[in-house]
Amino acid sequence: MDCISFAVDLWNAQTPAKQTFYFKDELVYTEDHVLVKNLFFFNISNLVTSRQLRKYFAKFGNVARLQILEAKGTASKPRSGYVCFHNPRHAAKALQRKVHYVNGCRLSVRPSDSWHQPDAQDLTRYPANMQPPKGNHSKAETIPIMRLNDDCLEHIVRMLALADRIHFARSCIRFRNVYQNVSPTLEKFVNFHTFESMTVWDVRDFFKLSGRHVQHIEGIMPERHCKHVCEFLGKYCINLQSMRVMANKLTSTSMSKMFAKLKSLESVELRGCALSNDGLLAMGHLKKLKKIDLAHNDRLTGENMDRFPRCVETLILTNCSGILAEKLAVACKALTQLKELHLKSVPRCFRELVVEKCCESLEVLATNCGSREYAEYQYVGQLPSLKKLILHSYPTDTLPTRLITGLAEHKSMQLEYFESRGSNCINAPMLLDIGKLGALRTLYLPNNNEITDQSLESLYSLQNLEEINLKYSINITDNGILRLILACAKLHVLHLNDCVQITDQLLKDIILKLKLAQNTPRTLPIKLTVTGTSVNYQTLHHPEVAAKKIIDVTLTLPSAGTCSFNMHDLFNIDPDDYNFDSDNSFDTEFEDEDDFLSDDSDPHFDFF
């Protein structure tokens, strides 16, 4: 089991499902401690009539009202509805029965949500300028907190946890107005984990009161709230700009609800969410969407991606192993403004992209490759606008020769960024071709034993090079790095972590040589990261090093602290990381009651 799937399992183990109602003294209460009189039923066969349902529930007590909810165009699908009892004991009696059959057909029954219960003090039904009944108002004036002015109350609200803020706002009209005054500055950024300790009613009221102020939301939705959060997001977060969801299974229905009104959305990340092709259609109307990250969704084939908004500039499909080359080509051709494409662990399709002229504007490509010389690789260098290339390779696999030579042939004066993520995937002949990429500004070649002082000479021709990463390259020395710095006049950022032969002498030599070459224009200071090298920490206190005028050295000492981590940090994943397991079970037509029309579908239900 990899670390990500372990983290998901651990997360779920720490957040068990919570019972949403309980029995007490022959009565039933919701998780918000609201007395239950109204019940929600679902999975009703079309063979069951309203009269039969009323007759059935009348066995438990006096039925005040019963309503079946039917969505348009779904006559063949099971239905849902609600029943209201005058006496809460009758509702409790119905809930005591675990299994319900009407006309030989089974149906499911649970309490209606807290805000649909008659005893719930849902103040949102009152206009903001309307006061509660006089009896309640006069009683409220005797409470000490009511004597505080609004400035004091706002200060109190800022100190409360989110759930407590919602309870505060629900208390009375004045408190709600106070909460809404401070909400725009408090609720711009939200992590889904915040909802873990909140009830569905709390979550609903948060989105109703503050949803329009939320600009960024991210994390793992609590499993028990997932479908409600999707619905509330799409209904109330009309100004949301970015969304990042991790490891939540999102059905097509959830996707449709979630993106319903997110017309300001610019960036969406749905990683490891077991997405289906049909679910992608929910994003077609988002006309401001620039970035779509669908990493680790291996059920996707590329179908319906051509229906994405034409304004999309970044598409991340890392570890979407089900992608088909021909469908991806169709999608890329439709996305005429696409500038960045991540295809790590996606079947190779570069020939289609080039021949069909599907990526005319593509500037950034991330992909994986092995040592086998697939013909596909020669087309990478022929992508007309390519400026940045990130290559992933498996351990011990060298990069394909034809890919590197193709870059040298077609992109010598265009490619500005080259990164190789792998172990020992570069050899000396490849460095000769990389040295021909004269436009390179950034070069990442970490963890390569083949890189030596002598092979670095191939890079002396890179006169535009500004940054290089040679981490874990154990065969380079102080002399090799010094000569590289002197040869590449614009080079001023070097990552040398764990290059074990790098010593204090390098720092002294750089200072000495650059002092002697003061008339040569170059960017100073030279920034060096040398953690894990043989550089002595005490050297950083030398006056000329500490001044940071010629060199700026970063050396982090090993931490003596214990191994600890934050659960959320495990999901802060690079878009091209390997090994993300998700729940790949397929959507069912109806998984639970949240797939049906809810009580909210009836605008009159609250007023019964």
Automatic annotation (TrEMBL):
PANTHER family linked to this entry: PARTNER OF PAIRED, ISOFORM B-RELATED
MF annotations from Gene Ontology: RNA binding
Listed name of the protein: Uncharacterized protein LOC117567705
InterPro entries: Leu-rich_rpt_Cys-con_subtyp, LRR_dom_sf, Nucleotide-bd_a/b_plait_sf, RBD_domain_sf, RRM_dom
GO biological process: SCF-dependent proteasomal ubiquitin-dependent protein catabolic process
ATP-binding is among the record's keywords: no
Lineage per the UniProt record: Eukaryota, Metazoa, Ecdysozoa, Arthropoda, Hexapoda
Organism: Drosophila albomicans (Fruit fly)
GO cellular component: SCF ubiquitin ligase complex
Matches recorded under Pfam families: RRM_1 (PF00076)
Tagged with keyword RNA-binding: yes
Domain called RRM: residue spans: 37-114
